[in-house]
Recover the amino acids of this structure.
DNA sequence: CTTACGGAGGAAAACGTATTCCTAGAAAGG
DNA sequence: CCTTTCTAGGAATACGTTTTCCTCCGTAAG
């Protein structure tokens, strides 16, 4: 592994050229496969580069090319549960194109957002991904930045800027179809606060599927509350009281499902024999820690990030997209709906 | 908010100079408060810059300065529970110095690590933070990179490169002291696999404090197992069987504590009245979701990141540090040891 | 009136790379 | 032998800054 000494400056193309006995321009051409050069010369330059451990200075290259091969990801989620997979997916798709990522966490403070935005612009990022922890529309980060922007797990209220969202309604539908396929017929749906768009969408998808199957579960039967285990514990008792014969409960989050699971065990109700349970998020520590482990809807957030990155790459190459695009969810089956599984 | 049109190139200092009717050099001096200039000229340049929404191109500046005001953070943790706070803290400390962060997730694959390392080096980062998900020593990322490196939440086996670690032993001691102060006298300690250095350190701290208080809890009494809720559930039964009169259990992670809590409730044991419970990690969704909520040791990972950043800044300014530095933990008291709290 | 000095700002170099244009030499054709 | 045509590689420019050095002008001192 060729490497510069600890205190030596890194080799530049000038050093390579000197060692190979050619001019700077020739060295550049040799390394990039451009121009007309003898094969022998190309090899000589390549050898010199290898010997010196030369790697081109991306800054200098960017200065010339007018772009930096860099994008910024701004999240309001404190790198939390939702942003992380999105960023991972985005980084994955961008990294393949040799693009690096500046990650910025605004902690949901507008002042920090402005500050990070300035920083990214003065670093001349080629594009921007704005990620959120809720899918609710947010104020646009700026319509005239001179840089393409894609929203992921959130959307802009001010325009038709491109946004990538998980298909929450589809997720609700998936849960419903799975429970129906198991032969369940009497349902409960416990979820987060009604003001959350995601909660409403999941509920709508669930209700639509029910209606499609000719079952009487309607929007009025949805129990809106909090995104917490405590609410899950409380709501489970409520469901057991108000819905005799209930044999399946769909929860708007894994945490709620954990709470429900707790209560059911305490009151001697078996999962999944008596009641099948489906969560949402497929959040490993939650679903695997539960007993039995939780069947859950996965939003495929990495895909959301990957798709957002693809749209951004398109926009960077002057083929911008517009409006909302959704990414399908998938259902992961575990013990809480299928006795066979762990 | 001054901004360039959507398709306009961003303003350069050349534009600013032209608008202000001065030379490029003068404009630069005016904006940076250098040289001898009339106040009126300074103002004129500042006004022009404001009007054009000028922000200096950090790349160009960096090219000249020989540094990029950029550092790389490489993690093996898939941006997981441990790395995230560390990175947040690091970003915090570095952002104040106008330094931006490239975050890279190796997914624990050596090949990816090499690839990211090459990328960061060709981007000429000023320094590198290597973060891990375990504190175990790992192979050095490279001793002759020509760039300062600091390890956070991990350490290098090949040298005395600086490393910042949480004080796991101190955390174990904190837990012990808290339980002793509550008057508890008969203890259990359930933790992860013995091969984990962190598990052994926490246990050692706990045992030392016990010995200091003259209690007979020794290294032999530690129950090593898995970092899972399932192990917590299992081990709790074991402790109840083998340690009659036990009135306090210290767990090596919050997940284990959740499992213990579950079992205790099922067998009709009250927390904290009969048994006080202390977890480790202070991981919000776990400690707050539990019933009662969990007292837990917080490793202050953001501080670990912050301190790592400070050491890196020192190294960048040619005052490198060496060896392992620890950051103290803190205990957060909640319902599982104190009936008053929720 | 001449010289020295100080203030204000301009000119130019430098950072590392890619690219465009140009030149020198060789080969080929007349 | 002279001219044309390639070919291989060199020279120069540009990218956007910062900084060093230099020049010009006005004023004060001798």
């Amino acid at each position: 592994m060729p490497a510069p000494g600890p205190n030596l400056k890194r080799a530049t193309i000038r050093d390579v050229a000197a060692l190979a006995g050619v001019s700077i321009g020739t060295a550049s051409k040799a390394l990039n496969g451009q121009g007309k050069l003898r094969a022998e010369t190309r090899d000589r330059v390549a050898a010199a580069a290898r010997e010196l451990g030369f790697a081109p200075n991306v800054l200098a290259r960017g200065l010339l090319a007018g772009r930096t091969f860099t994008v910024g990801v701004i999240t309001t989620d404190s790198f939390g549960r939702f942003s992380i997979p999105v960023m991972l997916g985005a980084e994955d798709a961008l990294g393949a194109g040799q693009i690096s990522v500046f990650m910025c966490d605004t902690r949901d403070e507008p002042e920090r957002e402005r500050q990070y935005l300035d920083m990214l612009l003065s670093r001349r990022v080629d594009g921007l991904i704005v990620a959120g922890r809720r899918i609710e529309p947010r104020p646009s980060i700026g319509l005239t930045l001179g840089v393409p922007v894609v929203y992921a797990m959130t959307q802009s209220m001010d325009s038709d800027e491109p946004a990538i969202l998980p298909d929450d309604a589809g997720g609700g539908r998936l849960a419903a179809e799975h429970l129906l396929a198991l032969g369940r017929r009497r349902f409960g749906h416990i979820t987060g606060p009604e003001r959350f768009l995601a909660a409403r969408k999941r509920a709508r998808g669930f209700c639509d599927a029910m209606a499609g199957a000719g079952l009487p579960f309607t929007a009025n039967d949805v129990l809106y509350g909090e995104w917490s285990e405590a609410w899950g514990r409380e709501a489970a008792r409520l469901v057991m009281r108000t819905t005799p014969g209930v044999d399946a409960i769909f929860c708007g989050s894994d945490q709620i499902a954990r709470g429900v699971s707790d209560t059911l065990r305490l009151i001697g109700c078996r999962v999944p024999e008596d009641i099948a349970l489906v969560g949402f998020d497929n959040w490993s520590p939650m679903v695997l820690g539960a007993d039995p482990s939780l069947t859950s809807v996965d939003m495929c957030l990495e895909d959301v990030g990957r798709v957002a990155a693809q749209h951004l790459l398109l926009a960077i190459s002057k083929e911008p997209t517009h409006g909302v695009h959704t990414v399908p969810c998938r259902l992961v089956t575990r013990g809480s709906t299928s006795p066979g599984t762990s």
Remarks:
- Chain B touches chain A through 58 residues (CB under 8 Å).
- Residues 61 and 68 of chain B are 8 Å apart (CA to CA).
- The first strand of chain B starts at residue 70 and ends at 75.
